[in-house]
Every structure is written in structure tokens, then in C-alpha cells.
Amino acid sequence: MADSLHRCAWCGTDPLYVAYHDEEWGVPEYDARALWEKLVLDGFQAGLAWITILRKREGMRDAFHGFDPEIIARYGEADIERLLGDARIIRSRAKINSAIKGARIWLEMRDNGEDFSAWLWSFVGGTPFQHEGGPRPTQTPESVAMARALKQRGFTFCGPVIVYAFMQAVGMVNDHDLNCLRHAPTRAMARS
Questions:
Q1: 56-63: long-range pairs with CB below 8 Å, 24+
Q2: 186, 165, 144: which is closest to 53 by C-alpha?
Q3: Closest CA to 157 of 47, 34, 53
């Protein structure tokens, strides 16, 4: 009997990709710390396939202290060297430094009373955009605006293409195919 469940073609048959597609991709995320973690992971993906990040994600969470901005913001050269020697992560000094800088910016925003989640969600008016068919873009005016605003704050590895992938991942955009088994459930998760 043929599999009657349709998924977005990009996830293929790799069990890790299928689980990510079925359980995470496109699910609206509103937690400020979780959003920052996903932004960092998308930055680490720059120049790589997302499956590489998925395969290293648990090791990265462990190596980066659960992506706790309070801890990462205090990282010094010894921590950077420790991370550069850790085969469980993407060992790029520039990307590691970007995560540290991003943690400091995240804390600064929080300490100034800014809600990172509300700020990011403001770029889509607080409600996920819904894919209505046709090809998916690689960037949108909203991802360009968000990337520009992130860079103005000092974040790095956050160009409009990376930011659009982030927006898809965290459910700011429901880019599941219309006939995908996850399109309607993900659409129903959107806050109005």
C-alpha cells in the first residue's frame, strides 16, 4: 500500500528531516529564548545544509550550555577555544563569536525592557503568513526588513535568506505545501 501521507518534498525520507518537518518546522514559536536559539542555529547553517545542523543540534545545545544567553554572553577566549575543539559543533570562530555577540545583544534588549519575541513577530504583524501555493520565495520584504533591523542591532549571520529560513522554521511563515499533512494543523496554531 502506498503512503497516502503527503509531506513537503524538501524533507525527503531522512528520519531526522521527516521528524523535524512533522514536529517543528512552521510551528509558531513565541518563546524569546527559543527564538534566539533558532536564529543562532540558522546563522550556523550559513553555507551548509540544514541536515548538518540537525545532526549537530544536540551537541551544540550541550556545548553552548543549552543556549542560555546569560552564560554565553560571558564566554571568553577559553570558551571559544573549547568550542573550536569540539567536533560536535560547527567549528567556525566567526559563527561562535556571532553567537556570543548575539547573546549580549539579546540580554541588552531584555534588560532594556524589549521583548525579543514581540519585536521579531512585529515584522509579520504578530500573525504567521500563510503559504497559498506556488513556489516558496527565498526572501521576502519582511525578511529583508528583519535582517536589516537585526544587523542594525549588531547581530551577524542574518541576511535576508537566512532570516527567511528562520521565519519558516519558527512559524512566522507557514510554508508547508497546501496538500502537506502539516499545512492545516500548522495554520490552526497561528495566534490571531
A1: 56/88, 56/89, 56/90, 58/88, 59/86, 59/88, 59/89, 60/88, 60/89, 60/90, 61/37, 62/88, 63/88, 63/89
A2: 165
A3: 47
Chain centroid, CA 55 distance in Å: 15
First to last CA, the chain: 39
Identity (one letter) of the amino acid at 40?
Answer: V
Q: How do 129-130 and 173-174 pair as beta strands?
A: parallel
Q: What pLDDT does 1 receive?
A: 32
Bridge-partner residues for 129, per DSSP? Answer: 173
- Residue 21, C-alpha cell as written in the block: 518537518
Question: C-alpha cell of 112?
Answer: 532594556
103-160 pLDDT, tens per residue? Answer: 999 999 999 999 999 999 999 999 999 988 888 999 999 999 999 999 999 999 999 9
Measured between alpha carbons, how far is 174 from 114 in angstroms, rounded to an integer? 26
